[in-house]
Design brief:
- This protein has 316 residues and is of the alpha+beta class.
- It has three domains: 5-99, no CATH class; 105-243, Jelly Rolls; 245-316, Phage tail protein beta-alpha-beta fold, CATH 3.55.50.30.
- It is 34% helix and 33% strand.
- It contains eight helices and 18 strands.
- The chain has helices spanning 5-13, 18-30, 33-45, 52-65, 70-99, 236-239, 254-265, 290-301, and strands at 111-115, 122-125, 131-134, 139-143, 150-161, 169-173, 176-180, 184-189, 196-202, 205-209, 212-216, 220-225, 228-233, 246-253, 268-271, 280-286, 304-308, 311-315.
- The strands form three sheets. Strands 1, 2, 3, 4, 5, 6, 7, 8, 9, 10, 11, 12 and 13 form a 13-stranded mixed sheet that branches.
- Strand 10 (205-209) and strand 11 (212-216) form a beta hairpin.
- Helix 1 crosses helix 5.
- The chain is rod-shaped, with a radius of gyration of 39 Å.
Length: 316
């Protein structure tokens, strides 16, 4: 018959009835190995460092039981050890549940920010050896631990040459999220415009938006504007021409064309009258000759320009 730890505890505490006390004393007298088995099992289960509080409890209990004499004293001492170990096991379980350290919170992602405040295009080398050509007034953000977490944010326009890597390169610009492994693509996400465009030069990219995802092939662009999201063909030879200091406009509203010209040359554009709607511009203009750029626009749209310091007035 096995020795029940709860019965043993009641016997030690003096709360067992006469029948139970007689049964336990008979077991201890005739089968002393039962107590040894209980001791071994108790120590095996208490597989942790004993807290100081539990150690003090054990010492106090043993000292109290050692005052007894004879064979019963020996049995009681061993029984006391078993009983206290049972209590220690309970203490250890509670200690693990209440004092175990909480899981460490995840570290917040930290970003590095690069702003092109220069009049010229800035070329940036990212930590993974990818290259970024940053347009004037464009802002690029990337994660500090970039080699293993290649996340990028863009406001403005930039051309990307992404190094091949086992970790995906993810770019957020406007409402579009672009994921690549190694490729060349251009992104337009000017904060003053209602359009975001991702144009693929080579490789393959997956562009996500609110309603789904599109995998682009070279020569294709995904555009998100007030009319929705659509895919269009682009001239790959012109998509990155601006990195050579040209002004590239691909089906862009006239008001946005003039605004980009003003940003490029550091001019404030002022419209004396609302521009006609529905006018889109497709062309490449010189990026180092304001007069020639305005002459092209004047010829096509019959516009008139008046420069007053840093302000460029536009009239029909």
């Amino acid at each position: 018959m096995p020795l029940d730890p709860l019965q043993l505890q009641r016997w030690i505490d003096g709360t067992s009835d006469d029948t139970e006390r007689a049964e336990i004393e008979m077991l201890l007298a005739t089968q002393p190995q039962l107590l040894d088995d209980l001791l071994n099992e108790s120590w095996d289960k208490a597989d942790a460092v004993m807290p100081a509080e539990a150690s003090d409890r054990l010492k106090a209990a043993l000292q109290a039981k050692l005052k007894l004499r004879g064979r019963i004293r020996s049995m009681l001492w061993r029984a006391a050890v078993a009983a206290v170990i049972i209590g220690v096991m309970i203490t250890l379980r509670r200690h693990r549940q209440t004092d175990s350290p909480a899981p460490a919170p995840e570290m917040a992602i930290q970003w590095k920010t690069v702003v092109n405040t220069h009049a010229n295009i800035v070329k940036i080398t990212l930590p993974d050896s990818s290259f970024v050509w940053l347009h004037q007034k464009a802002t690029l953000q990337y994660v500090t631990h970039f080699k293993t977490n290649r996340q990028v944010k863009l406001s403005g326009e930039a051309f990307f040459e992404v190094a091949a890597n086992a970790h995906p390169f993810t770019l957020t610009a406007g409402s579009l999220h672009t994921t690549v492994l190694g490729t060349q693509f251009n992104v337009e996400a000017y904060p003053m415009e209602q359009m975001t465009r991702v144009s693929l030069i080579s490789g393959k990219v997956a562009v996500k938006f609110a309603a789904g995802e599109v995998v682009l092939q070279p020569g294709k662009a995904l555009i998100a504007d007030a009319q929705g999201v659509r895919e269009e063909s682009v001239n790959v030879l012109l998509s990155d021409a601006w990195t050579g200091n040209s002004l590239v406009f691909n089906h862009l509203p006239l008001a946005d064309v003039l605004r980009r010209i003003g940003d490029h040359y550091g001019k404030h554009i002022r419209f004396d009258a609302p521009l006609p709607t529905g006018l889109y511009f497709n062309s490449v203009l010189p990026g180092n000759d304001l007069k020639a750029a305005l002459s092209n626009l004047s010829f096509v749209y019959k516009l008139h320009f008046h420069q007053q310091g840093d302000t460029l007035r536009v009239t029909l």
